[in-house]
Every structure is written in C-alpha cells, then in structure tokens.
Amino acid sequence: MKKFKNAAVALASALSMTVSGVAASMPLATYAPITASAAAIDDTNDDWLHAEGSRLYDMNGNEVWLTGANWFGFNCNEACPHYLWSADADDCLREIADRGINIIRFPISTELIVSWMNGTPNPVSSFSANNDPAYTINADFCGPDGKPVDSMQVFDIMMKKCKKYGIKAFIDIHSPHTDNSGHNYNLWYGKAGVTTDVWIESLVWLAEKYKNDDTLLAYDLKNEPHGKGQEGDAAAKWDGSKDENNWAYAATRCAEAILDVNPNALILVEGVEQSLSGAMPGDYWGMPDRKDNSPYIGAWWGGNFRGARDNPIKPKQGTSQIVYSPHDYGPSVYAQTWFEKDFTEKTLLDDYWYETWAYINAEEIAPELIGEWGGHMDGAENQKWMTLLRDYMIKHHINHTFWCLNTNSGDTGGLWDGLGFQQGSGTSIKWNEPKYKLFEEALWQTQTSGKYIGLDHQVALGSNGISLNEYYTKYSNSEGSNLDGGKKATGTPVIAGQSSSTTTTTNPNPSNTTTTTTATTTQTTTVTTTTETMPKLVSKSAKITINELPKKVTYEVGDTLDLTGGTYSAEASALFSNDVKRTQNKDNVSMTDNNKNIYIDYGYSIGGMAADWVFIFNLETDTSAVDMSKAGKYPVYVKVYDKFDTTQVYDTKSFTITVKEKGNEPDNTSYGDANCSGEVKMNDAVLVMQVLANGDAFDVDGTDKNAITEKGRINADCYDPGSDLTNMDAVAIQKFLIGKVTLPEYNSLTPPTK
Predict the structure, then answer these.
(1) In terms of Cα–Cα distance, which of 282, 286, 248, 244 is closest to 267?
(2) What is the spatial distance between Cα 130 and Cα 508, in angstroms, rounded to a whole number?
(3) Which of 78, 95, 111, 372 is catalytic?
(4) pLDDT, tens digit, 9 for 90 and up, residues 434-481
C-alpha cells in the first residue's frame, strides 16, 4: 500500500509595526509520543503516472493532464536555468505555480549529467547567489564559502523547490554536448565524448538517483533527433534496423535501461525529421534527394512519427510508461508547405498533423505530449496556428509543454518579457500577457471555478490551484475540468490507511492578518484549546515587507539619523501536521520597542493534559552599518529573527541611507552606460557580461571592435562602484531599465566614500 501524509494546516500570525517581531517555538508541557493509526507520510512516491490507451493516469486510475512550459539553461554553458542571474528561483517558481503551470520541462545536456555521474559537477556561471543580508538572492544556492554551489546541487535544489510549490518536472536531453545552440546537432551521440552507451548510462544514473522522488516524473530521451535523409548515417532515422542512427532502436534500448531502475518513470520519445516516402521502388535512406517525387517526407525536427506505425517503441517492460512527444511550430519559425493556404484545423490534419503524429493519440496507440509549441504573437498566421493547435490539444486530451518561459528564444520569444531583482521586494517578472492568455486556456483547470489542477496528490499548485486529491474529492464530479469539455468523473484520492472507496481529504489554507503600528504600545494574546492528537511542528517562517521608507533618507555629514515615518510588517506562520484551529494574535509597538515580544499561544490537550506551543517573534531595525560621520551609502536592515536563537534570522530586508559631504560636487559618471552611447540600454548589460566572459576580446584594448573603453568601464561599475566589474553590475543595469533601482546601486556593508 502506498503511504500518504496526514492533512496539514498552518497556524498563522501576521504583525505589522514600525520596528519590531520573529518566531520562536517551544512546547510548554511534556508528553509521551502518540502512535498514529494512519500510515506515515510518503509524499515522494505517490504521484507516479502510467499510460492506458491515449491517456495518463495516477496510481488509483484517476486521469491527469500535463500542461506546462519549458525553462532552458541546464543545456547551455551557464549549466543552470537562465535568468537566475537576475531573479530568485523561489520567486520564479512561485509565479510559475500561481500561473497554473503544473510541470516544467528542463532541457539539459548529456555532458552535464556525465560530469555529475563522474563526481566532478560542472560549475555554474551567470548565476546570482548571495546570502549577504545587504543583498540576498538565491541564498540557499550558496555554499559554505558564500559562492554558488555546483550545477548538480543547483538541479537538486530546483527539484526540491518545484515540490514545494506543487510543480512536477522532467528533463530532456537537448544535446550530447553543452552548447547554447546544441539543439542544432542531429544526434544523441558524437559530441563531447558522448557515445550511445554513455548517453544511456548517464540517464540510468539520473533515474537511479531520483527513483524515489516523483518530482522528476519523466525522461525525454533526446530533443529533436533530426537530419535530412540524404545525410545518411549522420541523420536520425526511424526504422526496424539496429543501426546506431536508428532512433527507434536507440530509444527502446534507453527506455528499457531506465525502466530497469525506475519502472514508474514516464519515458518520452520524440520523432525524427524525415522518413522514407516510398515514392519509387528501390529508394533507400541516404540516397540523394529528388526535386520531384522526393524519397523523403519532411516534418519539424522531432515531429515525424510515420515510422512508429510499423516500428513502435515497445520496451521489454511493456508500453505503460511510453509517451510520444512531437514538436510542432507555426509559420513564424519556418514557412512550411502546409501553411501556404488559408489553413484550418482540418487542413492541418489532412496535410500534416494526422499522419505525422496525431494518429497516435486519435487511434489510442499511446498518450502524446507536445514537448514544444509556441511562437510570436503576430496577430496573424502564427497566432492563428497557435490557437488551432491549442484548441486541438484541449479537445483531444494531449499533454503539452509550451516553448518557452525564457525571453531569449530568438525564433519564438517567451512567456516572460523581462525579469529583475530588487532587494526588499524580490523578483519582478514581466509576463507577455497576450501570449499567456492564449496559453492559459490550455492549462488544466476546473471547468467553472478556474482553479488550476496540480499533479501532486498532497501539495496544491501555487496559491491559485489545488492538489490532485482535492480535485478528485471536491471538483471532478461537480464541475469537472476543461479536459474533454468539462466531462465529469468520479475519482479515488490517494490516501494511506484508508480503503480505496474513501474520499476524504483536507487541504486548508493558512489565514493571515496584517496590522499597522500606532503610537501606543498594546499587546493581546489569544489562546485556543482543542482536543486532538499531539500536533507536530513541521516548519515556521516569516517574511518582511517594507511598507514605507522613513521620511528622510538623505543626510549631510554630522546629521542625526531619524527613521521617523518608516513602517515595516512581518508575516509569520507555523505549520502543523494535524488539522488544528487557527489562532490570530496581534501586537502594536512603538518605534522604540525593538525587542517587544509577540506571542502566539496554541493550546491543546492530550488525554486530559493541557499543553501549549508558544511562538515568539521579533522584528527590528539594525542601523549598525550607518556612519553619519562619513559620506557614503549605507544600508539599514529590517530583520525578523528567533527570540530564543538570535542567529536564526528568517528574513532580512534593507533600504539605503545616503550621507553627503556638505557642498559635495555632483558625480559626473554616467553609471550604466558601458558603451558610452549617451544612454543606458540592454546592450550595456550585454557588454558587461561579454567583458566578464571574454576579456581578451571585450575588455579595454580587447580585440573586438566593440570592446569596452576606459570610460565605459568606469560607467559600467554601477553596483557598489569601486568594487570592479561583476555580474551584479549587469543585473543592476537590467533592474534600472525596468525602473526598480537608480544607478549607481549600493548594497555592500562598506560602500565607498568620496
């Protein structure tokens, strides 16, 4: 029997004050352990999926729909998801979940996995990880030395964070070698020392590593195997041979090897580019093409499954884990022949879709997942194609992952238009709202209430979604979903210790309150007592918001620091594993009450014996870095920490105080203008990254015609000027361009003085 976790509920308190509040927790009574009657939590092995006909189901036979997006970067030289150079992973994944994306396809290279397998993980680059309270971004990606961890640790942490937000993931081998343009290479072997055996071995190693973690649900064996038929052995083909370039044979071998170590994983198999047309007797793979009666039938890279009719993927373990994964694009990527008419769904099916890939789903051969689709919103033919494919996928329960989240996909653009990070407010993501609106209709959601449906039985999909158990308990039989036009279904939740006919789940949400400070100091404590099994504290956390800055943030040397007018709030929560009542406690403090205690007292009884959990929070400002006797930029910190363990800081925000010399002359440096064009633009950030990546070509006196100048280097040093160029200078420019900061940006503890 699968194990299942008890329902969890949060005990939350929100407090807001001018300077004070963090959480500590301690039991105030001693009690004997309670033995639960239900099975223990096993929330890492209850979400595996399998195929029946053209659909995917969970372990209890409930249908699921994978509707997600791509986030590339592990396949590239940076060896990590792109944009973590100017964004926080938690912020990104939280928004991804809140926007209803229930699975992410992470492109990766075999070369990178091999480095993990060999115990020498490739380092990451263009990755911002900083646990300094003055500028905290991706702090849990920092190693003991404060520098970013290696690429394998980044991947592992990303998987944990996906689970936290109810998101599932799968990887696709985008290329054998690490290369930002590696997708252009035809085959799964032949680069960076990768052979077919090495490719299989590396995927088996990763499947073994993650065989007990259902966050990583699937393995897309190779992105877009392709090549023209006349290329012969250098092109991927699909037939019944055992030739090394026969993708069907290689994919079957690889699937079998993965399923030997993890029989629960889904195996995604893409198509090829060309297949033999049978136009003339004696035609063969590798022969020259003909202008008329071509021996080959073309398709999008990875989109051709014509060979699967006669040579389907049938591993020795059976086909219950096999999913076919075509890619399909519109005319903005390439003007294919099927776009030359006033195309409709019917013409696309007749001219291309059906015999190329759609028959697999339509004839109940296997499920399909369109691994890549998307493109530019042109208000014309490409947008028309996207709408037709979207609607076809919805009507025919076809799984999909949109290409892509990233802004830097040249031929398609992304769901994101820009990202930037600001200390104090976190990551701001500018979504391409028209594109997201088109895509959003194909995200799995309840039919009338529009709640996004996740693939995790226990964890809801972000703040706007529900878990799989909650859907099949509360919604599937009442309103259904947008899958199959709202068809209703009766489902069986996955619950340990209960029979398959039981349909009881609990998924309460924390209740939060924020209060604002007044000039007087009062304190209230509410105690709620319930009778239940012993509650287990799962976690506690707190988050600060700077509501208003002090009235004065610019001073002259010798002035007295005055933080009047600043207001800051902290929201704290404690999560218990039992279904308990919520207790809200509020406390108002004046500015001088920096160490005022805020109590949350949760009382309960076991066997007639009373007990309590008490949480004590402290929120305060820290001005120790400010020196009013010297000109400079200084951080003021707002911290939330544990009353009983002051080293346990839950959250830190900061703002900057400027101290000027009396009569100080203005700074004439054009901060951010790296190329000395007279204005700050994105190409200034690009130039900074080029200088850091290839100094011989782009640094002062470099060989490239666009190399930075002495003046440009001074201008480019716009993050903590005087600290030399780093990737944070490029980040600061990007933040400036979206209006998040002014330049220069200061965040060091010892800013330069004039």
Answers:
(1) 248
(2) 34
(3) 372
(4) 999 999 999 999 999 999 999 999 999 999 999 999 999 999 999 999
Catalytic residue among 78, 95, 224, 368: 224
Residue 335 tokens read as 């003007």
Distance CA 38, CA 33 (A): 15
What ranges make up the beta strands (E) of 128-167?
none
Cis peptide before 676 (omega within 30 of 0): no
In the sheet with 168-175, reading across from the earlier edge strand, the strands are 322-324, 266-269, 216-220, 168-175, 103-109, 67-70, 399-402, 369-370
- Would you call 372 a catalytic residue per the annotation? yes
Which residues is 203 bridged to in the sheet?
Answer: none
The residue type found at 214 is D
The encoded tokens of residue 688 equal 């900074």
Strands 296-297 and 275-276: antiparallel
pTM tops 0.90, yes or no:
no
Q: Which secondary-structure segment (H or E) carries 686? A: helix 682-693
CB 602 within 8 Å of CB 573:
no
Helices (H) and strands (E) in the chain, counts: 14, 29
- Bond before 27 cis per omega within 30 degrees: no
Q: Is the model's pLDDT at 499 over the cut of 80? A: no
CA 195 from chain centre, in angstroms, equals 31
527-531 and 598-606: which strand pairing?
parallel
Q: What are phi and psi of 145, to 5 degrees?
A: -85, 5
Burial 251-273 (b: 16+ CB within 10 A, else e): bbbbbbbbbebbebbbbbbbbbb
Residue 224 designated active-site: yes
* Cβ-proximal residues to 445 (8 Å cutoff; 6+ apart), any chain: 100, 451, 452, 453, 481, 482
Distance between CA atoms of residues 474 and 503, nearest Å: 9
Nearby residues of 379 by Cβ (< 8 Å), 6 or more positions away: none
Question: Are 237 and 245 in contact, with CB atoms under 8 Å apart?
Answer: yes
Q: How far apart are CA 375 and CA 451, in angstroms?
A: 26
Q: Any bridge partners for residue 211, and if so which?
A: none
Model pLDDT for residues 295-354, shown as the tens digit of each residue = 999 999 999 999 999 999 999 999 999 999 999 999 999 999 999 999 999 999 999 999
**Amino acid at the residue 146:** G
- Extract the tokens encoding 599: 């109590």
Beta strands at 67-70 and 399-402: parallel, antiparallel or unpaired: parallel
Q: pLDDT tens for residues 198-248?
A: 999 999 999 999 999 999 999 999 999 999 999 999 999 999 999 999 999
Three-state secondary structure string covering 579-642:
CCCCCCCCEECCCCCCCCCEEEEEEEEECCEEEEEEEEEEEEEECCCCCCCCCEEEEEEEEEEE
Q: Residue 679: how many CA atoms within 13 Å on its side-chain side? A: 3
Residue by residue, what is the 3-state secondary structure of 643-688?
CCEEEEEEEEEEEEEEEECCCCCCCCCCCCCCCCCCCCCHHHHHHH
CA distance 368 to 366: 7
Q: Which of 411, 375, 335, 376 is nearest to 181 (CA)?
A: 411
